[in-house]
Amino acid sequence: MHCARACRGLISRRSHTVLRAWRLQSRAAAAGPDLSGIYPPIATPFTAREEVDAEKLEENLQKYAEVPFKGLVVQGSNGEYPYLTAAERVEVVRTVRRSLPPGRLLMAGSGCESTRATVQLTEKMASAGADAALVVTPSFYKGKMDSRALIRHFTKVADSSPVPVVLYSVPANTGLDLPLEAVVELSQHPNIRGLKDSGGDITRIGLIVHKTKMEDFQVLAGSAGFLMAAYCVGAVGGVCALANVLGRELCELERLCRSGRWDEARVLQQRLIEPNAAVTRKLGVPALKQAMEWFGFHGGACRSPLQPLTEAETQQLRRDFSSNGWL
User: Fold this and answer.
1) pLDDT for 180-201, tens place per residue?
2) Tens of pLDDT along 36-81?
3) What domain of life (predicted)?
């Protein structure tokens, strides 16, 4: 009888192993795009009347085509998506699709406050040419956005989406971190491909990589300031505002990290920390657009109510770039 129980246990363990292998093989067969690489979350140029300036956008895209990016993120936070109508957001994606070189990935921000609106906009983004949908956490009612609500939201979006979904956690803007347990559960969905984490908590990023390693799920750093550290704990790339102006340098940092040249990577990473902080948490999108002008891109003004930098802020921004050898 003891022998029979032992045999049953062995069969059970073997069955579990076979089932897990089959599950991984099935997920690999249905795998979405490989997200690894560097993406600039591109800015949206506006005319003097605050209309989307498609001509200047296309000129920026021509310059980005010369940089070895994995792709572009369109209508993310740096694209000022909260200030664009749904129709404008879709049209920007359509414009980018027309100009994007073959083989480049187009990740389109389609997050809205309601699940229904997010499902609808995600479908429109896919029709406009998006390869993947970047879906930010709904946050207006952040006190009620617990794991249960967020898992249900993202699951419904992924169930309906014609393209793979990438989760987007950006607590600096939303006041809400996508909970670890929610990420782990959502990573098991066959149409959820990964996570862009902009929080900067490297222990959290490492833990997410560890706890999702059996899934077809990839993690992207959401900022250039901790890109090297994120690579160290298993991230596969980055969506970095700074790539809008120092794209080649961010791609070089990626190459150094992936080839294990950590001493060189550390030197470059250190030079990127201050300018990155300037165009993100310190001075935000107006600073990014100002820096784009200095580096030969069309940045221009933001859509109201975002205001241009003051003279003092502009001087600080220039110091953050020039003191690190970029200007």
Assistant:
1) 999 999 999 999 999 999 999 9
2) 999 999 999 999 999 999 999 999 999 999 999 999 999 999 999 9
3) Eukaryota
Task: Name residue 279's beta-bridge partners.
Answer: none
Helix axes of 115-128 and 86-99: crossing angle, nearest 10 degrees: 30
Whether 273 is covered by a domain: the verdict is no
Given the residues 168, 231, 282, 289, select the one marked as catalytic.
Answer: 168
Given the structure tokens 């165009």, which residue do they identify? 279
For residue 30, pLDDT over 70 is answered with no
Name the catalytic one among 196, 213, 231, 289.
196
Residue 168 appears among annotated catalytic residues:
yes
Q: How many Cα atoms are found within 13 Å in the side-chain-facing hemisphere of 294? A: 19
User: Is 289 a member of any domain?
Assistant: no
Is 239 annotated to bind a ligand? Reply is yes
Residue 277 lies in a domain: no
| Structural domain includes residue 156 | yes
| Counted domains in the chain | 1
SS3 at position 106 = strand
- pTM of the predicted model as reported, rounded to 2 decimal places: 0.90
Domain limits at 133? Answer: 32-261
